[in-house]
Amino acid sequence: MEIKNISLLGLIIQFHLRAAGLSRIEPAQIAGIGKTAIFDIEKGKPTIQLNTLLKLLDALNMTVHLDSPLMARFEDSDDAES
User: Fold this and answer.
1) Domains with residue ranges and CATH for the chain
2) Over the range 38-59, which residues count as b (16 or more CB within 10 Å of their CB) and which as e?
3) What pTM value is reported for the model?
4) Which of 2, 24, 37, 52 qualifies as a FRET site for 69, CA 20 to 30 Å off?
């Protein structure tokens, strides 16, 4: 799915939390973030830190995939090994 704004991402995360029967507390503890951060992400707050978002996604067993015409070249480069 292509995510074009933080609001859509927040709705997806909110859906996953509800479908899994989770409150904000459990994933916040697993991710090491505050439950307010999860609320902010769910509501599409534009100033959420990327690192916080990535921690939550990891706690929910969700991944982010980047795609571009240059990704194959990057993956073959020395930079990809960093």
Assistant:
1) 6-81 (1.10.260.40)
2) bebbbebeeebeeebbebbbeb
3) 0.87
4) 52
